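can u do me a favor
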């Protein structure tokens, strides 16, 4: 997988801001990306040294439309990336 398509976006949530104090950042990544690809993409895109990568897979939620039809949201993957002390990922 190419490095450009690995990182979808930086997740800005309450938990994400709490983790950023500990040099950890939450990212939405491509479903097919593995930990090594995520590490290389973060180091290349943000210019930081990655110490650890943790990933979680999420299933899309089902919901019912007005006409009683059930639709399912898309599955996605989240990565929590730990960077070297003193380095930051700039969230714009």
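np, heres the sequence
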């Amino acid at each position: 997988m190419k490095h450009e398509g690995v990182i979808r976006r930086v997740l800005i949530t309450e938990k994400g801001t709490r983790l950023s104090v500990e040099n950890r950042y939450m990212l939405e990544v491509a479903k097919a990306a593995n930990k090594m690809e995520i590490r290389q993409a973060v180091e290349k895109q943000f210019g930081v040294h990655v110490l650890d990568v943790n990933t979680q897979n999420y299933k899309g939620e089902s919901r019912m439309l007005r006409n009683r039809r059930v639709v399912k949201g898309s599955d996605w993957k989240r990565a929590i990336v730990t960077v070297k002390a003193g380095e930051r990922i700039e969230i714009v």
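The longest strand covers residues 50-58. hope that helps!!
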